[in-house]
Amino acid sequence: MDKEIVLSLGNQQVQIDAGELVGYAIAGHEFIHQKGSPGWRNADTEMFPIIGPTDAANFRVTTPKGKAVQDQHGLLRELDYECLEQTSKKAVFKKRYTANSVVKNAKFPHKSSEAELSWPYNFEFTKTFLLSDQGLQISFTVHGEEGMPFMLGYHPAFKLRTTEASIETGSKNWTITKVMSVGSRALHVPNCERILLKDEKSLEIRTKGFGNFMLWTEVPNMVCIEPITFYPYAVAQEKLHQGFTVFNGKAKEYSVFLHPLQN
Asked: CATH number of the domain that 155 lies in?
């Protein structure tokens, strides 16, 4: 199966590169930040089993099975996706991890002192893309050991075309300048499952299971709108475990729906 997968329906086209959403266009209008453009080297990624930095905690995160060596946003993004299914409108990918397996840290040695990462639990992580007439759904299914703690965040980056672009939740509105001013900590949007990105063409982002968002960018041409289960800067890094969800043996389901709007 080819590395790059293209899904299409009507005037919608989705490009997926090794499980990464690198394109979502409506009638040729691209919503996703393009690799190589200023701002971020990726287009999307997942943050699991932790969200946020760990350097101030010596890259150690507390779990019921002891300390785990984790770099920023966890080790899932260091693993490769396997494509399980592909049709014209759907693609399914999976990552598998065996407890205590050593994973090379791509941030070492330039951005981290830890060459290897590990996690003391088995897990499987499934990512599904599904196109419908209304838009694109990205779903995540987590299978893990009973008692496994985790956080989950989805980290997509969206392309901006105007200096007037803004983000709304219904009761609040943020300019891109405001998001930039918060810096690397990212702007927290608590108790929220729907956000509207207003630009040349607007995009509604609806979620299930996450409950929160983070907004981050350092440049005016893109913004990351990130559904998260926990805002990591609510606690000191050595207390990240206070934000864990605990796995009860049943699969956990999360979803993000990208709904283009007519401006």
From this structure: 2.70.98.10
Quote the CA–CA distance of 256 and 210 in Å, as a whole number: 9
Q: pLDDT tens digits, residue range 81-124?
A: 999 999 999 999 999 999 999 999 999 999 999 999 999 999 99
Q: Which has the closest alpha carbon to 18: 75, 89, 88, 91?
A: 91
Nearest C-alpha neighbor of 159 from the set 220, 212, 207:
220
Query: Distance (Å, rounded) from C-alpha 262 to C-alpha 181?
Result: 30
Q: Could you give the number of structural domains in the chain?
A: 1
Task: Name the pLDDT band for 1 (thresholds 50, 70, 90).
Answer: very low
Q: What is the 3-state secondary structure (H, E, C) of 213-263?
A: EEEECCCCCEEEEEEECCCHHHCCHHHHHHHCEECCCCCEEEEEEEEECCC
Closest to 16 in 3D by CA, of 130, 101, 108? 130
**Which domain range does residue 208 map to?**
4-260
5-10, long-range: CB within 8 Å, 24+ apart, which pairs? 5/83, 5/86, 5/91, 7/88, 7/89, 7/90, 7/91, 7/129, 7/131, 8/88, 8/89, 8/131, 9/88, 9/89, 9/131, 9/132, 9/133, 10/133
